[in-house]
Amino acid sequence: MMIPVFVVIPLACAFLIPLAARKTEVAAQVIACAGSLALLVLSVMSVFWVRQGILIYEVGGWPAPFGILMTLDGLSVLMLIVVNVVGFLSLIYSVDYMKRYTSPGYYYTLFCLLLAGLNGVVISGDLFNLFVFVEITAVASYALVAFGTEREELEAAFRYAVLGTVASAAILLGIGVIYSYTSTLNMADMALTLGGGMPDKVVPFVAVLFIAGFGLKAALVPFHSWLPDAHPAAPAPISAMLSGVVIKTIGVYAMLRILFNVFGITPEISAVLVWLGIASMVFGVLLAIGQWDFKRLLAYHSISQIGYVVFGVGLGTPLGIIGGLFHLFNHSIFKSLLFLNSGSVEQAAGTRKLDELGGLSDSMPVTGWTSLIASLSISGIPPLCGFWSKLIIIVAAFQAGHTAGAVACIFTGIITLASFLKVQQYAFLRKGKSMEKVKESPFLMRFAMVALAVVCIAAGLAFMPFVRAVIDPAANILIEGTGIVFKILGV
Question: Which residues contact 194 (CB under 8 A, 6 or more apart)?
Fold first, then answer.
């Protein structure tokens, strides 16, 4: 069974890289990139594996609920693709970008630990190991945010760590409470036990703890205060991972997996998710529009765009869930690309202040064009991928009778477009700034940006086949809710 390989490969790379880095930096780069490429290939192959049904690996041969399970279903496959597409291209980008930093061995080791934690969260079948992998991801993230060791990075990493610890405490408390009532940590067995009836106040109390804890990990409003500092402070490829992957995997994915497949979605929980999504959409984009720091602007847009995901899925309708999960994938691609663009601009021009830039489309054509594609996609301009997922969410909102949410989506889209028109105008199109000495980024950085731009275009032009092959199976897992326990436990 190949399921454990998603954790074994990055852990093995994390072990080998410090040894190889003693000899040469190139060896560390090769090991990290080769391991990530293998994960990417396996993630794409997993689309075909789950067509026969949910795959289960029993660690040590112990069956559920006594042993540890690793599961692979449609939702897991979607998240594995998100994690490993962005992870591989961020590592490729890092080969040239991280030359400005010291200790490459530590960087690539932490990056592989980050991938191990993210993949582990996705395939975990029990709450305890999900929490362990969340913490592995979080600790690696804290260290990578602080990797530059300047005052800004260290302050941002400290704040991120403090608030992340608060979130982890809420999650752990919720796990402890629900375990005390169900006497199991296996998520499928827990769902089966909860279906037999529980004290009325236990599940709502634990749901609040999980929404607060995972909401903080996902930077939903009002739990978002750490993100605008952490994302700009981190190296560009780490900013891409944080925004494109980390907040979705240890925040949104973990929360939705528990609320839908363990507790079962209720009208009350659905309403909470919907209004958290609306608040994140609106407040995030309003805070972004006035920013002049390129990366900080992108950080606030991460808060706004994650609101679309939570709102769409929170509607609880099949179309809303499909739209939310499709936007989760799309956001991981175009937001990662935008953060890589910002790193390319900062490295070439020496600043990320929009009012200090100008005319970069002439001296950095690849960065300029890929940034334009990502900007149009996040703004919901057809036929790029962001347009279709936003359209699906808006239609789902109207179908569900949630006119306020649909209007919020449209309003947020208009302000997002205005914000990125500002980015394009000030950084790339306007003249008058002296940028003659600015040169285009090295080849591997350009390769990563072009690859993500191609995915933005391809996912938009071929959105129906992609939705049918990847998004629909993921949405079906959430739509089925607690019903998947019968497939996992065989009861």
Answer: 182, 203, 262, 263, 264, 482
The structure tokens listed for 309 are 């995901």
Q: With the CA atoms of 305, 311, 317 and 319 taken in that order, what torsion angle do they form, in degrees rounded to the nearest 10?
A: -20
Q: What is the dihedral of CA 233, 237, 238, 242, to 10 degrees?
A: 100
- Evaluate whether 91 touches 39 at the Cβ level (below 8 Å): no
R_g over Cα of the chain = 21
Q: What is the mean pLDDT of residues 268-291?
A: 91
Structure tokens at 1: 């069974």
Q: Taking the domains of the chain in order of start, what are their residue ranges?
A: 5-489
Q: Taking Cα atoms as reference points, which of 342, 347, 227 lies closest to residue 293?
A: 342
For 347-378, b where at least 16 C-beta lie within 10 A, e where not — what string?
Answer: bbbeebebeebbbbbebbebbbebbbbbbbbb
Cα gap 13→25, rounded to integer Å: 14
The DSSP string of 264-317 is: ---HHHHHHHHHHHHHHHHHHHHHHHT--BHHHHHHHHHHHHHHHHHHHHHT-S
Q: What is the pTM of this model?
A: 0.93
Residue 439 phi/psi, 5-degree rounding, is -120, 155
CA dihedral 457, 85, 352, 364 (to 10 degrees): -50
pLDDT in tens, 10-56: 999 999 998 888 878 888 889 999 999 999 999 999 999 888 888 88
* Residues 85-101: tens digit of each pLDDT: 999 999 999 998 888 77
CA distance 314 to 220: 13
Alpha-carbon torsion 260, 264, 268, 269, what sign? negative
- The string over 97-132, giving b where at least 16 C-beta atoms fall within 10 Å of a residue's C-beta and e elsewhere, is bbeeeeebbbbbbbbbbbbbbbbbbbbbbbbebbbe
